[in-house]
Amino acid sequence: MLDCHVLLSQPWENWLTDSLSQLRSANLLRTLRPVVPTLNAVEVVVPGEVLWPWLAEGGVVPAVSASAPDATGGGVLKLFSLNDYLGLSTHPAVCQAAAHAALLYGSGPRSSALVGGHTHAHRELECALAALKGAQDALLFPTGFAANLAAVSALACDAGAVVFSDELNHASIIDGARLAGRAGAAVHVYRHNDLAHLERLLVACPPGRRRLVVTDSLFSMDGDFADLQGLAELRQKHGFLLAIDEAHATLVCGERGGGAAESAGVADQVDLHIGTLSKAAGAHGGFVACRADMRSLLVTRGRAGVFSTALPAPVVAAATAALRVAAEEPWRRQHLWRLVERLGAGLGVRAASPIVPLVIGGEAAALAASAALLARGFHVPAIRPPTVAAGTSRLRISLSAAHTCADAVQNLTPFLTTQLA
């Protein structure tokens, strides 16, 4: 990198220095670590100059390398940290679809969807997503974050709206609710999965207000599910709009991969199915599946989509191919859930989903456990504040259909058991 140190005005220099110092002293300053992907969806190559400082951060003396060390002293890591739940990101059909679209249409969309970036390929993907979710229509967004941000802020856009949000919802929902609050909407946060608390808030809401209840369906840090059947019953009773973020459940849950709402038998009670294409679909982008008239509103008022460049054609083609492969190869989802069951049994914990958290407690202990696993060739990340509450730092295991039973049970479990002893 070039040494282009630009001097800032003194207030900015002071603020930047102080902010970085505070983050560093609180052990909250994060680092990006360049890795080399492979065509195995759950393996990466890590150069030695990246691996050794990474190990040292967790207090591991670099005396051993990860499995299959390369010539630079790095190694190959088996990933238990990604969200490629079906292993589709490297599937030949998905890769070929992306490559073919790039050759036909180029790498970029050239404009926003409204101006001219919305193609027949985009519309085909939207229709496929609507069918998957059992919805009337769907709208693509550049990311899942943008989809949540746009949906919540566009619907709760004035003082006539009230938002009710689970306390453990994803940051994109929280930020959408903050925007709604700035626009005049009231925002209430209910205790995690506490529907009695939610109902008390609903009952206290003034009559005639437009009420929006929004929740993750599968919570990303705890691996537990929202009580969607209970929410559907409350919806019938209180008449609110129900939006669920199916980011971690789409293609993972349900007989067809329609998500947690399909699995719970309440897909027809959900008004907005929000999701991402960057997890089980192995591609990129976000979407909202909903009524056609709701889509029309989001096309016009969903600012996170209106003012963003459309998804590139290769990404759209990859996502469409991934949906097709997921439907044609249901064994992937079935294998994934077998891994969940076997890992839970091996660790003696209740594993409810492909996200299996092992709460350690303190930050230093979680970082040390993660580094010890890293030294053995397993990337199991330590999740710590502010992502999770103080005192609940944890190892977060993410399973994929690309893992074998040997990966998840025979190889990883003994080392995890040692770290938890």
Describe the structure.
- It is a single chain.
- The chain is an alpha/beta fold and 421 residues long.
- It has two domains: 42-79 and 331-420, Aspartate Aminotransferase, domain 1 (Alpha-Beta Complex), CATH 3.90.1150.10; 92-328, Type I PLP-dependent aspartate aminotransferase-like (Major domain) (Aspartate Aminotransferase, domain 2, 3-Layer(aba) Sandwich), CATH 3.40.640.10.
- 44% of the residues lie in helices and 16% in strands.
- It has helices spanning 10-25, 48-57, 92-105, 113-117, 120-133, 144-155, 171-182, 195-204, 228-238, 260-264, 292-301, 303-306, 313-328, 331-347, 363-375, 405-420, and strands at 36-37, 43-46, 75-79, 137-141, 161-166, 186-190, 210-216, 241-245, 272-276, 286-290, 355-361, 378-379, 382-383, 393-398.
- The strands form three sheets. Strands 4-10-9-8-7-5-6 form a seven-stranded mixed beta sheet, with helices on both faces. The chain has a four-stranded mixed beta sheet with strand order 1-2-3-12. A three-stranded antiparallel beta sheet has the order 11-14-13.
- α3 (92-105) runs antiparallel to α13 (313-328), α6 (144-155) packs parallel to α7 and α8 (195-204) packs parallel to α9.
- The mean pLDDT is 93.
- One of its GO terms (molecular function) is transferase activity.
The second-level CATH architecture of the largest domain is 3-Layer(aba) Sandwich
Task: Provide the structure class.
Answer: alpha/beta
The CATH H-level homologous superfamily of the largest domain: Type I PLP-dependent aspartate aminotransferase-like (Major domain)
Mean pLDDT: 93
Q: How far apart, in Å, are the first and last alpha carbons? A: 44 Å
Largest beta sheet: strand ordering: 4-10-9-8-7-5-6
Largest sheet: 7 strands, mixed
Count of beta strands: 14
Strand content: 15-25%
Might you state the CATH topology name of the largest domain? Aspartate Aminotransferase, domain 2
Helix-residue proportion? 40-55%
Rough shape?
globular
Order of helical and strand elements: HEEHEHHHEHEHEHEHEHEEHHHHEHEEEH
Question: Can you tell me the residue ranges where pLDDT is under 50 for at least 5 consecutive residues?
Answer: none
What CATH first level of the largest domain would be assigned? Alpha Beta
Domains (count): 2
Q: Cα-atom Rg, whole angstroms?
A: 22 Å
Compute the number of helices.
16
